[in-house]
Amino acid sequence: MRKSCSIVAIILMLCFSIQVAQAGTFYLHDHPSYWWYVVEQPAFSAIIPSAAQNYFQRSVFGMEILEMTFANGTIVMEVIHQPGKDVEAVRASLEARYKPLVKNVTLISNKEITTSNNLKSHFYAYEATGANGKKVMLRSVFFQKGEHVVYLTMFLNADQFQGDIREYWIRAVNGFEWN
Questions:
Q1: 53: nearest Cα among 67, 35, 64, 38
Q2: Nearest residue to 163 (alpha-carbon basis) of 80, 56, 79, 75
Q3: 84's torsion region: left (phi>0), alpha (psi -120 to 50) or beta?
Q4: Residues 179, 123: Cα–Cα separation, whole Å
Q5: Are 120 and 111 in contact (CB under 8 A)?
Q6: What domains does the chain contain, in order, with CATH numbers?
Q7: Residue 80's closest CA among 42, 119, 114?
Q8: What is the pTM of this model?
Q9: Does a cis peptide bond (omega within 30 degrees of 0) precede residue 42?
């Protein structure tokens, strides 16, 4: 009996250690409104807001997601990383994810940008009418290096993209770095 309990305990410890290894780690930032979110594989750091109402880390088919919610879930910001080299395919899948929920899409941007950290990235954004009848916004920035794509996304009602929320987004995009 003791031997079978030990084996179960070892298996559980291995499962939990594997799960933790895939998740990012949070570190204090110089500014109290932010945290560093650090991932080891692929090696990157992102500056994320420390004031989100919820933080969820999950894994879906090899895609690792940190989801942050604000304003009772009406604003969602994500840091996602997944294997791959094709930024356009990842961008298209993100667009398709929300396509059934929006109409009257107006493309704001679909271009390469250079961040404050001098990193080339792809910026994609649109405004549309959401299923709730409100003007909504999707913003996303894609970073690609080696065999990985890391991207930041924000989904919200268009009138919410102001003040601290706007600053959180700008800081996240321009503070991203490969380690």
A1: 67
A2: 75
A3: left
A4: 21
A5: no
A6: 53-178 (3.40.1000.10)
A7: 42
A8: 0.85
A9: yes
Helix (H, G, I), strand (E, B) or coil at 37: strand
Cα separation, 158 vs 138, in Å, equals 9
For residue 39, with 0-12 CB atoms within 10 Å meaning exposed, 13-18 middle and 19 or more buried, which class applies? buried
Instruction: Output the six-digit token pair for 109.
Output: 């941007």
Categorize the per-residue pLDDT at 23 as very low, low, confident or very high, splitting at 50, 70 and 90: confident
Report the side by side order of strands in the sheet with 135-145.
54-60, 63-70, 75-83, 148-157, 135-145, 120-130, 102-114
Torsion of CA 22, 63, 43, 152, to 10 degrees: -130
Query: Of residues 11 and 163, which shows the higher confidence score?
Result: 163
* Residue tagged 């799960």 (tokens): 19
Q: Tokens 């989904």 identify what position?
A: 155
Q: Where are the alpha helices (DSSP H) in the chain?
A: 2-22, 87-98, 163-175
